[in-house]
Amino acid sequence: MPSFTPRQFVILVLLTLAWGFNWPVMKLGVADYPPLSFRAISIWLGLPVLALALVWLKVPFRVPRSAWPELLWLGATNMFVWHACIILAVKALSGGRAAILGYTMPVFSAVIGALLFSATLTRRAWLGVGACAVGVGLLLWHELTNLSGRPGYVALALVAAATWALGTQLLRHTRIGLPTLTLSFWMTAMTAVVMTALSLLFEREQLYWPGRVAWGSILYNAVLIFGFAHAAWFYLARGLPPIASTLSVMFIPVLGVFSGAVWLSEAVHWQDWVAVALMMVSIASVLWPSKVARG
Q1: Longest C-alpha distance within the chain, in Å?
Q2: 60: phi then psi, degrees, rounded to nearest 5
Q3: CB neighbours of residue 157 within 10 Å
Q4: From CA 259, how far away is CA 163, in angstroms rounded?
Q5: What span, in angstroms and rounded, lies between the C-alpha atoms of 236 and 241?
Q6: CA distance 55 to 58
Q7: pTM greater than 0.70
Q8: Residue 21 and residue 24: Cα distance in Å, rounded?
């Protein structure tokens, strides 16, 4: 299993921090604001940030006509379904542990890779998947009673995770020979249109000018999530084997749980601490360098 380059590792750390702290930020943002509209505004404000990055780095915007059908499919599996389903789940489910359902993605990714893409996983990779699965179960330990009363939203989060896992595999195997930033910009632009249409369809009567807390959450998402995190994730997903890119972000839900405990006053139990150790095993399974055979 290939090790991370220093650049990939730095991007991974920044991505983990941005996404990890975003779960309680999103929860605060949608507490009194329609979730689909919250997401749509965040994306539209984040899109110019991403566009400036392309201009600054001199990355082309142009996409050949022949690539649009596949790009649309990549956008649907990586972003459309994820953002629509997970923001509704964040609104309905308790605190930072909504992140845990979303980050069952590595388990789905391992299964999808094995079934659809003939991926061969090493014992160490399976160890990481197993540690991830047990850690998710432990983090959900004290949520089962609450979640059992809202099975529809639990299902939405799991659909989001499974679809994102498929999208990660498809992105890894894409035939589109364009820079990752170009793909990220256009997938984000298409998602803005989709989320705007959904918000107008389902939340038109609920729309109003966001308050100070909602605006703070929107700006966090605009700059750090849509201006940086998604492009960073796509860069890792295209440059690393799927199992490495997916398991390596497993500290994100841990940050979601513990930052939720600090900001939203949610209780942290012994199962959460054991889950932290298991997540570290999961991360180590892909970050620890493989032994090099001596010749």
Answers
A1: 70
A2: -70, 145
A3: 25
A4: 26
A5: 9
A6: 5
A7: yes
A8: 6
Residue 135 scores a pLDDT above 90: no
What's the mean pLDDT in 91-108? Answer: 76
Determine contact, residues 85/246, Cβ cutoff 8 Å. Answer: no
How far is it, in rounded angstroms, from Cα 16 to Cα 19? 5
List strand residue ranges (DSSP E) for 4-120, in order. none
Q: Please report, in angstroms and rounded to a whole number, the separation of the first and last CA atoms in the chain.
A: 18
Query: Rounded to an integer, what distance in angstroms lies between the CA atom of residue 96 and that of residue 266?
Result: 9
Is residue 219 exposed (0-12), middle (13-18) or buried (19+ Cβ within 10 Å)? middle
CA distance 295 to 254: 41
Question: Residue 219, CB half-sphere, CA atoms under 13 Å: how many?
Answer: 7
Over residues 218-259, the pLDDT tens digits come to 999 999 999 999 999 999 888 877 667 776 677 788 888 788
Instruction: Determine the 3-state secondary structure of 241 from DSSP.
Output: coil
- Cβ atoms 9, 245 nearer than 8 A: no
Residue 197, pLDDT > 60, answer yes
Measured distance CA(139)–CA(274) in Å, rounded: 9
How far apart are the C-alpha atoms of 28 and 139, rounded to whole Å? 21
User: How far from chain centre, in Å, is Cα 185?
Assistant: 16
- Please list the alpha-helical segments (H only) found in 117-229: 123-139, 144-148, 151-172, 180-202, 212-220
Cα–Cα distance for residue pair 137/139, rounded to 1 Å: 6
Distance CA 70, CA 84 (A): 20
